[in-house]
Specification:
The complex is a heterotrimer of chains A (131), B (267) and C (147).
Chain A: H1 5-18, H2 27-31, E1 32-48, E2 55-61, E3 67-73, H3 77-82, E4 95-103, E5 109-117, E6 122-124
Parallel strand pairs in A: 3-5
Antiparallel strand pairs in A: 1-2, 1-4, 2-3, 4-5, 5-6
Chain B: H1 8-23, E1 35-38, H2 44-48, H3 55-66, H4 75-91, H5 97-100, H6 111-115, H7 121-124, E2 131-135, E3 139-144, E4 150-154, E5 171-177, E6 180-186, E7 191-192, E8 198-199, E9 204-210, E10 217-225, E11 234-242
Parallel strand pairs in B: 4-5
Antiparallel strand pairs in B: 1-2, 1-11, 2-3, 3-4, 5-6, 6-9, 7-8, 9-10, 10-11
Helix pairs in contact in B: 3-4
Chain C: H1 9-15, E1 36-46, E2 51-59, E3 65-73, H2 75-78, E4 93-100, E5 107-115, H3 124-146
Parallel strand pairs in C: 3-5
Antiparallel strand pairs in C: 1-2, 1-4, 2-3, 4-5
The chains are: A alpha+beta (131), B alpha+beta (267), C alpha+beta (147).
Chain lengths: 131, 267, 147
Protein backbone atom coordinates (compact mmCIF):
# COMPACT_ATOMS: atom_id res chain seq x y z
CA UNK A 1 0.00 0.00 0.00
CA UNK A 2 1.25 3.46 -0.83
CA UNK A 3 2.38 5.64 1.98
CA UNK A 4 -0.03 8.51 2.23
CA UNK A 5 0.92 12.07 2.81
CA UNK A 6 -1.23 12.10 5.89
CA UNK A 7 0.56 9.15 7.38
CA UNK A 8 3.99 10.59 6.69
CA UNK A 9 2.92 13.95 8.04
CA UNK A 10 1.53 12.36 11.16
CA UNK A 11 4.78 10.54 11.73
CA UNK A 12 6.72 13.75 11.17
CA UNK A 13 4.46 15.44 13.68
CA UNK A 14 5.14 12.76 16.25
CA UNK A 15 8.86 13.13 15.75
CA UNK A 16 8.65 16.86 16.30
CA UNK A 17 6.82 16.35 19.55
CA UNK A 18 9.20 13.58 20.58
CA UNK A 19 12.12 15.94 20.10
CA UNK A 20 10.86 17.65 23.20
CA UNK A 21 9.54 21.04 24.09
CA UNK A 22 12.12 23.77 23.94
CA UNK A 23 13.86 22.32 20.94
CA UNK A 24 11.00 21.70 18.61
CA UNK A 25 8.93 24.59 17.46
CA UNK A 26 5.28 24.09 18.19
CA UNK A 27 2.11 25.97 18.61
CA UNK A 28 1.98 25.94 22.39
CA UNK A 29 5.33 27.62 22.96
CA UNK A 30 4.71 30.01 20.10
CA UNK A 31 1.58 31.34 21.75
CA UNK A 32 2.18 30.82 25.47
CA UNK A 33 5.27 31.83 27.39
CA UNK A 34 6.48 29.38 30.02
CA UNK A 35 8.72 32.16 31.34
CA UNK A 36 5.60 34.21 32.13
CA UNK A 37 3.77 32.07 34.68
CA UNK A 38 0.45 33.08 36.21
CA UNK A 39 -1.03 31.93 39.49
CA UNK A 40 -4.54 33.31 39.89
CA UNK A 41 -7.54 32.65 42.08
CA UNK A 42 -11.02 33.49 40.92
CA UNK A 43 -14.59 32.45 40.34
CA UNK A 44 -15.49 30.47 37.23
CA UNK A 45 -17.82 32.47 34.95
CA UNK A 46 -17.95 30.18 31.93
CA UNK A 47 -16.76 26.74 30.81
CA UNK A 48 -16.68 25.73 27.16
CA UNK A 49 -15.75 22.17 26.33
CA UNK A 50 -14.34 21.67 22.90
CA UNK A 51 -11.71 20.69 20.38
CA UNK A 52 -8.87 21.09 19.96
CA UNK A 53 -9.10 23.03 23.23
CA UNK A 54 -11.50 23.49 26.11
CA UNK A 55 -11.70 26.98 27.63
CA UNK A 56 -12.84 28.37 30.93
CA UNK A 57 -13.08 31.91 32.27
CA UNK A 58 -12.62 33.23 35.78
CA UNK A 59 -13.23 36.61 37.39
CA UNK A 60 -10.09 37.69 39.22
CA UNK A 61 -9.72 40.74 41.42
CA UNK A 62 -6.51 42.58 40.53
CA UNK A 63 -4.27 44.68 42.76
CA UNK A 64 -6.37 47.79 42.13
CA UNK A 65 -9.50 46.00 43.24
CA UNK A 66 -10.88 45.78 39.71
CA UNK A 67 -12.33 42.53 38.44
CA UNK A 68 -10.71 41.10 35.34
CA UNK A 69 -12.04 38.17 33.35
CA UNK A 70 -9.25 35.77 32.43
CA UNK A 71 -9.55 33.09 29.75
CA UNK A 72 -7.71 29.80 30.24
CA UNK A 73 -7.01 27.22 27.60
CA UNK A 74 -7.10 23.51 28.45
CA UNK A 75 -6.53 20.35 26.42
CA UNK A 76 -9.17 18.91 24.10
CA UNK A 77 -12.34 17.51 25.62
CA UNK A 78 -11.29 13.99 24.56
CA UNK A 79 -7.98 14.44 26.29
CA UNK A 80 -9.47 15.88 29.49
CA UNK A 81 -12.00 13.06 29.77
CA UNK A 82 -9.17 10.56 29.42
CA UNK A 83 -7.34 12.37 32.20
CA UNK A 84 -10.19 11.84 34.59
CA UNK A 85 -12.26 14.97 34.07
CA UNK A 86 -15.98 14.87 33.56
CA UNK A 87 -18.39 17.55 32.41
CA UNK A 88 -19.11 18.55 36.01
CA UNK A 89 -15.51 18.78 37.13
CA UNK A 90 -15.48 22.52 36.65
CA UNK A 91 -18.66 24.55 36.96
CA UNK A 92 -19.70 28.17 36.92
CA UNK A 93 -19.38 29.52 40.45
CA UNK A 94 -16.51 27.27 41.47
CA UNK A 95 -13.62 29.11 43.09
CA UNK A 96 -10.37 27.86 41.60
CA UNK A 97 -6.68 28.58 41.76
CA UNK A 98 -5.04 28.23 38.37
CA UNK A 99 -1.37 27.88 37.55
CA UNK A 100 -0.36 28.32 33.94
CA UNK A 101 1.50 30.26 31.27
CA UNK A 102 0.33 33.59 29.93
CA UNK A 103 -0.04 34.21 26.20
CA UNK A 104 2.86 36.04 24.60
CA UNK A 105 0.55 38.68 23.11
CA UNK A 106 -0.13 39.94 26.64
CA UNK A 107 -3.91 39.55 26.82
CA UNK A 108 -5.81 38.15 29.79
CA UNK A 109 -5.32 34.71 28.30
CA UNK A 110 -3.25 31.80 29.55
CA UNK A 111 -2.80 28.07 29.22
CA UNK A 112 -3.80 26.29 32.42
CA UNK A 113 -1.38 23.68 33.73
CA UNK A 114 -3.11 22.82 37.00
CA UNK A 115 -6.31 23.87 38.71
CA UNK A 116 -7.05 23.51 42.38
CA UNK A 117 -10.67 23.63 43.48
CA UNK A 118 -11.76 25.07 46.83
CA UNK A 119 -12.29 21.46 47.94
CA UNK A 120 -8.56 20.94 47.50
CA UNK A 121 -9.06 18.66 44.51
CA UNK A 122 -6.50 19.15 41.75
CA UNK A 123 -7.10 18.89 38.02
CA UNK A 124 -4.51 18.86 35.27
CA UNK A 125 -4.87 21.09 32.25
CA UNK A 126 -3.97 18.23 29.91
CA UNK A 127 -2.62 20.55 27.28
CA UNK A 128 -1.86 18.55 24.20
CA UNK A 129 1.07 20.48 22.90
CA UNK A 130 0.98 18.79 19.53
CA UNK A 131 -2.23 20.68 18.81
CA UNK B 1 -43.69 33.26 -14.20
CA UNK B 2 -40.18 33.30 -12.94
CA UNK B 3 -38.55 30.53 -11.04
CA UNK B 4 -35.81 31.27 -8.64
CA UNK B 5 -32.65 29.82 -10.16
CA UNK B 6 -30.30 27.72 -8.08
CA UNK B 7 -27.57 30.07 -9.10
CA UNK B 8 -29.11 33.01 -7.29
CA UNK B 9 -27.42 32.17 -4.03
CA UNK B 10 -24.06 32.34 -5.70
CA UNK B 11 -24.76 35.64 -7.41
CA UNK B 12 -25.65 37.09 -4.06
CA UNK B 13 -22.32 36.10 -2.62
CA UNK B 14 -20.65 38.39 -5.11
CA UNK B 15 -22.90 41.37 -4.60
CA UNK B 16 -21.42 42.76 -1.40
CA UNK B 17 -18.01 42.74 -3.03
CA UNK B 18 -19.29 44.90 -5.87
CA UNK B 19 -20.84 47.26 -3.37
CA UNK B 20 -17.51 47.69 -1.63
CA UNK B 21 -15.73 48.74 -4.76
CA UNK B 22 -18.43 51.02 -6.09
CA UNK B 23 -19.88 52.60 -2.99
CA UNK B 24 -16.92 52.45 -0.60
CA UNK B 25 -19.15 51.46 2.24
CA UNK B 26 -18.15 51.91 5.83
CA UNK B 27 -16.33 49.02 7.43
CA UNK B 28 -18.61 46.67 9.30
CA UNK B 29 -18.18 46.00 13.00
CA UNK B 30 -19.13 42.40 12.26
CA UNK B 31 -22.13 42.39 14.57
CA UNK B 32 -24.42 41.42 11.69
CA UNK B 33 -22.76 37.98 11.50
CA UNK B 34 -22.85 37.34 15.23
CA UNK B 35 -25.03 34.58 16.67
CA UNK B 36 -26.04 31.00 16.00
CA UNK B 37 -26.32 29.48 12.53
CA UNK B 38 -27.26 25.96 11.49
CA UNK B 39 -28.45 23.73 8.63
CA UNK B 40 -29.45 25.58 5.44
CA UNK B 41 -33.03 26.26 4.34
CA UNK B 42 -34.84 23.23 2.95
CA UNK B 43 -34.53 24.27 -0.67
CA UNK B 44 -32.93 22.39 -3.55
CA UNK B 45 -30.10 24.87 -4.02
CA UNK B 46 -29.28 25.45 -0.38
CA UNK B 47 -29.53 21.76 0.47
CA UNK B 48 -26.93 21.01 -2.17
CA UNK B 49 -24.66 23.26 -0.07
CA UNK B 50 -25.50 21.43 3.18
CA UNK B 51 -21.85 20.44 3.56
CA UNK B 52 -20.28 22.23 0.61
CA UNK B 53 -21.08 22.93 -3.01
CA UNK B 54 -19.48 24.38 -6.11
CA UNK B 55 -20.87 26.51 -8.92
CA UNK B 56 -20.16 23.61 -11.28
CA UNK B 57 -22.21 21.17 -9.23
CA UNK B 58 -25.08 23.61 -8.74
CA UNK B 59 -25.38 24.47 -12.41
CA UNK B 60 -25.27 20.77 -13.28
CA UNK B 61 -28.13 20.07 -10.88
CA UNK B 62 -30.06 22.95 -12.43
CA UNK B 63 -29.62 21.42 -15.89
CA UNK B 64 -30.70 17.99 -14.69
CA UNK B 65 -33.82 19.38 -13.02
CA UNK B 66 -34.73 21.42 -16.10
CA UNK B 67 -34.58 18.43 -18.42
CA UNK B 68 -38.05 16.82 -18.68
CA UNK B 69 -36.35 13.51 -19.50
CA UNK B 70 -35.30 13.36 -15.83
CA UNK B 71 -38.73 14.03 -14.35
CA UNK B 72 -39.29 10.38 -13.45
CA UNK B 73 -35.85 9.82 -11.94
CA UNK B 74 -35.57 9.90 -8.13
CA UNK B 75 -34.28 13.21 -6.81
CA UNK B 76 -31.35 11.67 -5.00
CA UNK B 77 -30.22 10.13 -8.27
CA UNK B 78 -30.03 13.65 -9.73
CA UNK B 79 -28.24 15.18 -6.74
CA UNK B 80 -25.81 12.29 -6.85
CA UNK B 81 -25.26 12.80 -10.57
CA UNK B 82 -24.57 16.49 -9.96
CA UNK B 83 -22.11 15.50 -7.24
CA UNK B 84 -20.41 13.08 -9.58
CA UNK B 85 -20.15 15.77 -12.24
CA UNK B 86 -18.66 18.16 -9.71
CA UNK B 87 -16.12 15.55 -8.66
CA UNK B 88 -15.04 14.56 -12.16
CA UNK B 89 -15.34 17.88 -14.02
CA UNK B 90 -14.44 20.38 -11.32
CA UNK B 91 -12.29 18.76 -8.66
CA UNK B 92 -10.40 15.93 -10.33
CA UNK B 93 -8.73 18.08 -13.05
CA UNK B 94 -7.42 20.35 -10.30
CA UNK B 95 -5.74 17.59 -8.29
CA UNK B 96 -2.00 17.02 -8.64
CA UNK B 97 -0.54 13.62 -9.43
CA UNK B 98 0.67 13.43 -5.84
CA UNK B 99 -2.84 13.94 -4.48
CA UNK B 100 -4.33 11.46 -6.95
CA UNK B 101 -2.00 8.68 -5.77
CA UNK B 102 -4.22 8.05 -2.79
CA UNK B 103 -7.57 9.08 -4.26
CA UNK B 104 -10.35 8.54 -3.50
CA UNK B 105 -9.59 7.72 0.09
CA UNK B 106 -11.56 4.99 1.76
CA UNK B 107 -13.75 6.56 4.47
CA UNK B 108 -12.70 3.62 6.63
CA UNK B 109 -9.21 5.19 6.72
CA UNK B 110 -10.48 8.46 8.16
CA UNK B 111 -8.78 9.05 11.54
CA UNK B 112 -11.97 10.76 12.68
CA UNK B 113 -13.80 7.49 12.15
CA UNK B 114 -11.05 5.13 13.27
CA UNK B 115 -9.69 7.03 16.27
CA UNK B 116 -12.18 9.81 16.98
CA UNK B 117 -9.62 12.43 16.01
CA UNK B 118 -11.27 15.83 15.57
CA UNK B 119 -11.40 17.18 12.05
CA UNK B 120 -8.79 19.55 10.71
CA UNK B 121 -9.47 23.01 9.32
CA UNK B 122 -10.26 21.94 5.74
CA UNK B 123 -13.19 19.82 6.90
CA UNK B 124 -14.20 21.71 10.01
CA UNK B 125 -15.12 24.93 8.19
CA UNK B 126 -17.67 22.98 6.12
CA UNK B 127 -19.01 20.89 9.00
CA UNK B 128 -22.79 20.53 9.09
CA UNK B 129 -25.09 21.91 11.80
CA UNK B 130 -24.29 24.63 14.32
CA UNK B 131 -21.85 27.48 13.82
CA UNK B 132 -21.73 30.20 16.45
CA UNK B 133 -19.91 33.44 15.64
CA UNK B 134 -18.85 35.75 18.46
CA UNK B 135 -17.12 39.07 18.17
CA UNK B 136 -14.55 40.69 20.41
CA UNK B 137 -12.49 43.82 19.85
CA UNK B 138 -9.44 42.03 18.59
CA UNK B 139 -10.78 38.61 17.56
CA UNK B 140 -13.67 36.49 16.43
CA UNK B 141 -14.47 33.13 17.95
CA UNK B 142 -16.17 30.54 15.79
CA UNK B 143 -17.65 27.52 17.51
CA UNK B 144 -18.95 24.52 15.62
CA UNK B 145 -21.43 21.88 16.80
CA UNK B 146 -19.39 19.23 15.04
CA UNK B 147 -16.59 18.20 17.41
CA UNK B 148 -17.51 21.19 19.59
CA UNK B 149 -14.67 22.80 17.69
CA UNK B 150 -13.57 26.35 18.28
CA UNK B 151 -11.42 28.67 16.18
CA UNK B 152 -9.92 32.04 16.95
CA UNK B 153 -9.66 34.56 14.14
CA UNK B 154 -7.50 37.57 14.99
CA UNK B 155 -8.80 40.89 13.74
CA UNK B 156 -5.75 42.94 14.73
CA UNK B 157 -3.71 41.58 11.87
CA UNK B 158 -1.19 39.84 14.07
CA UNK B 159 0.99 37.41 12.18
CA UNK B 160 1.59 33.89 13.40
CA UNK B 161 4.61 33.76 15.72
CA UNK B 162 7.80 32.82 13.86
CA UNK B 163 7.97 29.46 15.55
CA UNK B 164 4.28 28.60 15.14
CA UNK B 165 4.04 25.02 13.91
CA UNK B 166 1.18 23.88 11.67
CA UNK B 167 -1.80 23.04 13.86
CA UNK B 168 -5.17 21.33 13.55
CA UNK B 169 -7.14 24.48 12.74
CA UNK B 170 -4.25 26.68 11.57
CA UNK B 171 -3.60 30.37 12.12
CA UNK B 172 -6.38 32.71 11.01
CA UNK B 173 -6.55 36.47 10.63
CA UNK B 174 -9.64 38.33 9.50
CA UNK B 175 -10.80 41.73 8.27
CA UNK B 176 -13.93 43.25 6.78
CA UNK B 177 -14.50 44.38 3.23
CA UNK B 178 -17.75 46.23 3.65
CA UNK B 179 -20.06 43.69 5.24
CA UNK B 180 -18.01 40.72 4.07
CA UNK B 181 -15.87 38.99 6.67
CA UNK B 182 -12.65 37.84 5.01
CA UNK B 183 -10.54 35.26 6.86
CA UNK B 184 -7.10 34.16 5.71
CA UNK B 185 -5.71 30.93 7.12
CA UNK B 186 -2.36 29.18 6.89
CA UNK B 187 -0.16 26.92 9.08
CA UNK B 188 -2.68 24.08 8.94
CA UNK B 189 -1.21 20.66 9.64
CA UNK B 190 -1.55 18.24 6.70
CA UNK B 191 -4.91 16.48 6.94
CA UNK B 192 -8.04 15.40 5.05
CA UNK B 193 -10.35 17.45 2.87
CA UNK B 194 -13.95 16.87 1.80
CA UNK B 195 -12.74 16.60 -1.80
CA UNK B 196 -11.42 13.08 -1.20
CA UNK B 197 -7.75 14.13 -1.27
CA UNK B 198 -5.39 15.09 1.51
CA UNK B 199 -3.74 18.48 1.81
CA UNK B 200 -0.26 19.48 2.96
CA UNK B 201 0.75 22.06 5.56
CA UNK B 202 1.21 24.46 2.64
CA UNK B 203 -2.58 24.84 2.43
CA UNK B 204 -3.87 28.40 2.34
CA UNK B 205 -7.50 29.42 2.49
CA UNK B 206 -9.48 32.61 2.06
CA UNK B 207 -12.99 32.43 3.49
CA UNK B 208 -15.59 35.09 2.69
CA UNK B 209 -18.71 35.24 4.87
CA UNK B 210 -21.75 37.31 3.93
CA UNK B 211 -25.29 37.65 5.24
CA UNK B 212 -27.41 38.62 2.23
CA UNK B 213 -31.12 39.07 1.54
CA UNK B 214 -33.30 39.21 4.59
CA UNK B 215 -30.55 38.11 6.93
CA UNK B 216 -31.80 34.57 7.27
CA UNK B 217 -28.79 32.96 5.59
CA UNK B 218 -25.04 32.98 6.06
CA UNK B 219 -23.00 32.23 2.95
CA UNK B 220 -19.41 31.07 2.75
CA UNK B 221 -17.25 31.15 -0.33
CA UNK B 222 -13.88 29.58 0.45
CA UNK B 223 -10.90 29.52 -1.90
CA UNK B 224 -8.47 26.75 -1.01
CA UNK B 225 -5.00 26.38 -2.47
CA UNK B 226 -2.25 23.88 -1.80
CA UNK B 227 0.84 23.50 -4.01
CA UNK B 228 1.12 19.85 -2.98
CA UNK B 229 -2.43 18.74 -3.72
CA UNK B 230 -3.94 21.29 -6.12
CA UNK B 231 -2.82 22.46 -9.56
CA UNK B 232 -5.03 25.52 -9.16
CA UNK B 233 -7.22 26.83 -6.34
CA UNK B 234 -10.70 25.43 -5.76
CA UNK B 235 -13.72 27.44 -4.64
CA UNK B 236 -16.08 25.67 -2.25
CA UNK B 237 -19.29 27.23 -0.95
CA UNK B 238 -21.66 26.62 1.91
CA UNK B 239 -24.96 27.91 3.31
CA UNK B 240 -26.28 28.15 6.89
CA UNK B 241 -29.62 29.37 8.29
CA UNK B 242 -30.11 31.81 11.14
CA UNK B 243 -30.89 29.54 14.12
CA UNK B 244 -30.93 31.55 17.38
CA UNK B 245 -32.89 28.81 19.16
CA UNK B 246 -30.15 26.24 18.74
CA UNK B 247 -27.19 25.53 20.96
CA UNK B 248 -23.98 23.60 20.83
CA UNK B 249 -24.41 20.35 22.74
CA UNK B 250 -21.78 18.22 24.48
CA UNK B 251 -19.70 16.13 22.11
CA UNK B 252 -18.21 13.43 24.26
CA UNK B 253 -19.53 10.09 23.15
CA UNK B 254 -17.27 9.43 20.20
CA UNK B 255 -15.94 5.90 20.38
CA UNK B 256 -13.84 4.12 17.77
CA UNK B 257 -15.74 1.56 15.71
CA UNK B 258 -15.97 -1.99 16.96
CA UNK B 259 -16.60 -3.35 13.47
CA UNK B 260 -16.24 -2.04 9.94
CA UNK B 261 -15.24 -3.23 6.52
CA UNK B 262 -12.79 -1.71 4.10
CA UNK B 263 -13.93 -0.64 0.67
CA UNK B 264 -12.35 -3.55 -1.16
CA UNK B 265 -14.15 -5.99 1.13
CA UNK B 266 -17.58 -4.49 0.67
CA UNK B 267 -20.01 -5.81 -1.93
CA UNK C 1 -23.61 -3.41 27.70
CA UNK C 2 -22.74 -3.92 24.11
CA UNK C 3 -20.13 -1.36 23.11
CA UNK C 4 -21.50 1.43 21.03
CA UNK C 5 -20.50 1.19 17.46
CA UNK C 6 -19.00 3.47 14.96
CA UNK C 7 -20.03 6.88 15.84
CA UNK C 8 -18.80 8.85 12.93
CA UNK C 9 -20.77 6.91 10.47
CA UNK C 10 -23.42 9.47 9.77
CA UNK C 11 -20.75 12.02 9.08
CA UNK C 12 -18.99 9.72 6.71
CA UNK C 13 -22.20 9.18 4.85
CA UNK C 14 -22.81 12.90 4.80
CA UNK C 15 -19.50 13.78 3.27
CA UNK C 16 -20.08 11.84 0.13
CA UNK C 17 -20.26 14.42 -2.61
CA UNK C 18 -23.11 12.43 -4.07
CA UNK C 19 -26.20 13.61 -2.31
CA UNK C 20 -25.30 14.78 1.12
CA UNK C 21 -28.39 13.81 3.05
CA UNK C 22 -29.19 10.76 0.99
CA UNK C 23 -30.26 7.61 2.79
CA UNK C 24 -28.16 5.61 0.40
CA UNK C 25 -24.67 6.87 0.95
CA UNK C 26 -21.70 4.65 1.63
CA UNK C 27 -20.59 3.56 5.06
CA UNK C 28 -17.83 1.25 6.30
CA UNK C 29 -20.16 -0.33 8.86
CA UNK C 30 -23.70 -0.44 7.51
CA UNK C 31 -24.79 -1.82 4.17
CA UNK C 32 -26.83 0.96 2.60
CA UNK C 33 -28.00 -1.32 -0.19
CA UNK C 34 -30.06 -3.41 2.25
CA UNK C 35 -32.80 -2.65 4.75
CA UNK C 36 -34.18 -4.74 7.60
CA UNK C 37 -37.06 -4.10 9.98
CA UNK C 38 -37.27 -5.11 13.62
CA UNK C 39 -39.93 -4.45 16.22
CA UNK C 40 -39.41 -4.34 19.95
CA UNK C 41 -39.28 -2.46 23.22
CA UNK C 42 -36.94 0.47 23.72
CA UNK C 43 -34.59 -0.20 26.65
CA UNK C 44 -32.35 2.83 26.18
CA UNK C 45 -32.25 6.09 24.22
CA UNK C 46 -28.94 7.92 24.32
CA UNK C 47 -29.36 11.42 22.92
CA UNK C 48 -25.64 11.97 22.40
CA UNK C 49 -23.03 13.33 20.01
CA UNK C 50 -21.73 12.50 17.57
CA UNK C 51 -24.45 9.84 17.18
CA UNK C 52 -27.52 8.86 19.13
CA UNK C 53 -28.35 5.25 19.95
CA UNK C 54 -31.52 3.29 20.59
CA UNK C 55 -31.27 -0.09 22.32
CA UNK C 56 -34.12 -2.37 21.44
CA UNK C 57 -35.24 -5.73 22.92
CA UNK C 58 -36.51 -7.79 19.99
CA UNK C 59 -38.02 -11.27 20.20
CA UNK C 60 -37.03 -13.19 17.07
CA UNK C 61 -38.99 -15.87 15.21
CA UNK C 62 -37.73 -18.62 17.49
CA UNK C 63 -38.83 -16.75 20.60
CA UNK C 64 -35.31 -15.77 21.53
CA UNK C 65 -34.61 -12.27 22.89
CA UNK C 66 -32.13 -10.31 20.77
CA UNK C 67 -30.75 -6.95 21.86
CA UNK C 68 -30.41 -4.57 18.91
CA UNK C 69 -28.31 -1.42 18.82
CA UNK C 70 -29.72 1.14 16.45
CA UNK C 71 -27.54 4.07 15.58
CA UNK C 72 -28.92 7.37 14.32
CA UNK C 73 -27.79 10.97 13.75
CA UNK C 74 -26.45 12.74 16.81
CA UNK C 75 -28.05 15.32 19.04
CA UNK C 76 -26.42 18.17 17.10
CA UNK C 77 -28.32 16.98 14.03
CA UNK C 78 -31.58 15.76 15.63
CA UNK C 79 -32.18 19.02 17.51
CA UNK C 80 -32.39 20.77 14.16
CA UNK C 81 -35.48 18.63 13.52
CA UNK C 82 -36.93 19.38 16.95
CA UNK C 83 -35.97 16.11 18.66
CA UNK C 84 -35.34 16.09 22.41
CA UNK C 85 -34.03 13.49 24.81
CA UNK C 86 -37.55 12.17 25.29
CA UNK C 87 -38.49 11.89 21.63
CA UNK C 88 -38.05 8.15 22.17
CA UNK C 89 -38.97 6.78 25.59
CA UNK C 90 -37.80 3.70 27.40
CA UNK C 91 -40.53 1.04 27.40
CA UNK C 92 -42.26 2.15 24.22
CA UNK C 93 -42.81 -0.29 21.38
CA UNK C 94 -41.40 0.77 18.02
CA UNK C 95 -40.78 -0.70 14.60
CA UNK C 96 -37.45 0.33 13.14
CA UNK C 97 -36.21 -0.04 9.59
CA UNK C 98 -32.55 0.48 8.87
CA UNK C 99 -29.36 -0.56 7.11
CA UNK C 100 -27.86 -3.69 8.72
CA UNK C 101 -24.17 -4.13 9.49
CA UNK C 102 -22.00 -5.87 6.91
CA UNK C 103 -21.08 -8.46 9.53
CA UNK C 104 -24.64 -9.43 10.35
CA UNK C 105 -24.36 -8.35 14.00
CA UNK C 106 -27.58 -7.09 15.58
CA UNK C 107 -26.94 -3.44 14.75
CA UNK C 108 -28.31 -1.07 12.15
CA UNK C 109 -28.34 2.53 10.98
CA UNK C 110 -31.84 3.95 11.42
CA UNK C 111 -33.87 4.85 8.35
CA UNK C 112 -37.43 4.90 9.69
CA UNK C 113 -39.04 4.71 13.11
CA UNK C 114 -42.76 3.89 13.48
CA UNK C 115 -44.40 4.19 16.89
CA UNK C 116 -46.99 1.78 18.27
CA UNK C 117 -49.81 4.15 17.23
CA UNK C 118 -48.63 4.02 13.62
CA UNK C 119 -47.15 7.52 13.54
CA UNK C 120 -43.68 8.04 12.15
CA UNK C 121 -40.96 9.91 14.01
CA UNK C 122 -39.27 11.75 11.17
CA UNK C 123 -35.53 12.30 10.98
CA UNK C 124 -34.38 15.81 9.98
CA UNK C 125 -33.00 14.35 6.75
CA UNK C 126 -36.36 12.84 5.86
CA UNK C 127 -38.15 16.12 6.46
CA UNK C 128 -35.63 17.86 4.21
CA UNK C 129 -36.05 15.24 1.50
CA UNK C 130 -39.82 15.69 1.63
CA UNK C 131 -39.50 19.48 1.30
CA UNK C 132 -37.17 19.08 -1.68
CA UNK C 133 -39.56 16.66 -3.39
CA UNK C 134 -42.29 19.30 -3.04
CA UNK C 135 -40.07 21.99 -4.52
CA UNK C 136 -39.16 19.73 -7.40
CA UNK C 137 -42.83 19.00 -8.13
CA UNK C 138 -43.56 22.74 -8.19
CA UNK C 139 -40.68 23.31 -10.61
CA UNK C 140 -42.02 20.65 -12.94
CA UNK C 141 -45.55 22.08 -12.75
CA UNK C 142 -44.32 25.58 -13.53
CA UNK C 143 -42.31 24.33 -16.46
CA UNK C 144 -45.27 22.41 -17.82
CA UNK C 145 -47.47 25.51 -17.55
CA UNK C 146 -44.97 27.57 -19.51
CA UNK C 147 -44.89 25.08 -22.36
Amino acid sequence: MRASLLRSLTIAGLLVVAAGPGKAHHSFAAIFDREDPVNLMGTVTKVEWGNPHTWFYIDVENEDGDVENWAFELGSSNHLLRRGWNRNSLQVGHVVTVVGSRERAGGLIAAARTLTLSTGESLFGAQDESQ
Amino acid sequence: MTRRPLFLSIVIIQLPLLCVSTLARAQSDGSHLEGMWSDPPRTLADSQCYVYCTDAGLSRLEELLDDPANDDRPLNELTRAAGGYQREQYFRPRFTAAALENYPRDPADDPGFLYCEPWGFAKQIFSPHQLEIRHFDDRIEMRYGEWEARRTVYLDGRAAPDDYAPSLLGWSVGHYEGDTLVIETSSVRGNLTFMGIEHSDQLTAVERYTRPDDGQRLLLSATLDDPWGLKQPVVMKKVWSWAPEQEISPYEDCKPPTEFSRREDRP
Amino acid sequence: MKPRQTLLLGLLTLISAEGVYSHHARSPVYDASRSVTVEGLVTEFNFYNPHAMISLDVTDDTGKLVKWSIELPGRLNLTVGGWTDDSVTVGERVAITGNPTYTGSSGMWLERLIRADGSELLLPGTERSNALEDERRRRIEERDQQN
